[in-house]
Specification:
CATH architecture of the largest domain: Alpha-Beta Complex
Shape: elongated
Number of domains: 2
Oligomer: single chain
CATH topology of the largest domain: set domain protein methyltransferase, domain 1
Structural class: alpha+beta
Order of helices and strands: HEEEHHHHHHEEEEEEHEHHEEHHHH
CATH superfamily of the largest domain: set domain protein methyltransferase, domain 1
CATH class of the largest domain: Alpha Beta
Number of strands: 12
Strand order of the largest sheet: 1-2-9-6
């Protein structure tokens, strides 16, 4: 149990802010780091955290501080951007708004986030995770540039210039700690809130919780649907995410995650099939694109995604010439298989299907073996351990599909 001065000051601050007492306390856990421990038995159906509306940092609550400035902004400032800016500004003058006890408990750095990895570790991420990080980096840079535009006409808010590193840190605080006020509107940028105390709860895929805003008490509540014993870590559930997503967005991974999958897009695109000319391959890729089946090809434990099966069946139509009547007939059959009107294009097509799926699995195994070999020679750090887990999971998924193929089970 953590009882340092910073945390005790934070508890006093919560009390002053009107937050009800909970059956939780901050503790250090060997497998997750900091998290919330039950100080008493908790029953299923109990509210484990309740944050008053006055203590939620939202676009609405910040309207009192920045409202007219936001309205006048040339570029739209969404919740993520304004909350990140607010945190960055508070860090420049921590005592001005009285939030210093909370600010002191925020992470000092985000070294477990792939966006902060050194290049030699970033290069060991699976390709789709690298792409995810690059999109994230572009998003942060775009938000930073929009924020700088906002600050050009609101320069009086600053104690000193807002550097990119400080904004990125604040942006990651929001990304890793905010909750959706309405779970049904997760695509709405103005639907997020920073909720002190609640944001110390860690995620696990098998936690069962309900989060909701209670209009009667004017507070955001988290209710657990599972019981916890005194001394156990209490979790919440961010949603059905695989470990690559969780690592990129939040900086950790979870054990035995049932939502894990391995993407084989690059291997599929580089796959060499006898009798398939470059022009035929291009025509097939165009057809997959037009049909909505280009890329996002996944392998799951003991399972192959429908998208990959669809795409591979098309790749295995050879010879292939869109000017040929015979090819058009095969394409028509392919469409019928996709829609479920036919079971197969041909017996030969189905015979070859598992063979080429196994080739993709072999490529995954090779990538995993190479990455794990490199990681084994590096010092043990959280990023290295996280990467090792990703590649072990990738390896195990590939092996499970190969095993299914060797047992002649239907894919």
């Amino acid at each position: 149990i953590i009882k340092d001065k910073e945390y005790m000051d934070f508890l006093d601050w919560l009390k002053q802010m009107g937050c009800p007492k909970t059956k939780l306390t901050l503790a250090e856990f060997s497998n997750t780091g900091r998290g919330m421990m039950a100080t008493k038995d908790i029953k299923a159906g109990e509210v484990i955290v309740q944050v008053p509306e006055s203590n939620l940092v939202t676009m609405k609550s910040l309207g009192a501080i920045y409202g007219s400035r936001i309205v006048r902004a040339k570029k739209k400032i969404n919740s993520h951007m304004i909350i990140a800016l607010h945190i960055a500004l508070m860090m420049q003058d921590p005592e001005r708004l009285g939030w210093l006890p909370y600010l002191r408990l925020l992470p000092k750095k985000f070294d477990t986030m792939p966006i902060r990895y050194p290049k030699e570790l970033f290069d060991l991420l699976p390709p789709h995770a690298q792409a995810h990080v690059n999109r994230q980096r572009s998003k942060i840079m775009a938000d930073y540039n929009s924020t700088l535009e906002f600050l050009k006409v609101n320069n009086d808010l600053l104690k000193r210039p807002l550097e990119y590193e400080d904004y990125e840190w604040a942006w990651l605080v929001v990304n890793t700690r905010c909750i959706y006020l309405d779970a049904k509107k997760q695509d709405t940028a103005d639907n997020i809130a920073l909720a002190p105390m609640l944001d110390f709860l860690n995620h696990t895929h098998d936690a069962k919780t309900e989060g909701f805003f209670c209009t009667k008490t004017k507070s955001y509540k988290i209710k657990t649907l599972l019981p916890y014993k005194k001394g156990e870590q209490v979790f919440i559930n961010y949603g059905p995410h695989d470990n690559c997503f969780i690592l990129v967005e939040y900086g950790f991974v979870t054990p035995n995650n049932p939502f894990n999958y391995a993407l084989v897009d690059n291997s599929f695109l580089q796959l060499s099939i006898p009798g398939e000319s470059p022009s035929a391959k291009k025509d097939k890729m165009d057809l997959l694109t037009m049909s909505g089946y280009f890329c996002d090809y996944a392998l799951h434990r003991n399972d192959v995604s429908f998208r990959l099966m669809v795409a591979m069946r098309l790749r295995l139509i050879n010879p292939f010439s869109t000017a040929s009547v015979a090819t058009q007939f095969e394409i028509a059959k392919w469409h019928n298989v996709v829609s479920g009107e036919l079971d197969q294009i041909s017996s030969e097509n189905e015979r070859l299907l598992p063979k080429y799926i196994e080739i993709l699995c072999d490529t995954l195994l090779s990538d995993a073996k190479k990455s794990l070999s490199i990681l084994a020679r590096k010092p043990t750090t959280f990023p290295v351990v996280h990467l090792q887990q990703l590649w072990i999971e990738t390896r195990d998924i590939a092996l499970s599909v190969i095993d299914k193929i060797h047992r002649n089970e239907q894919l």
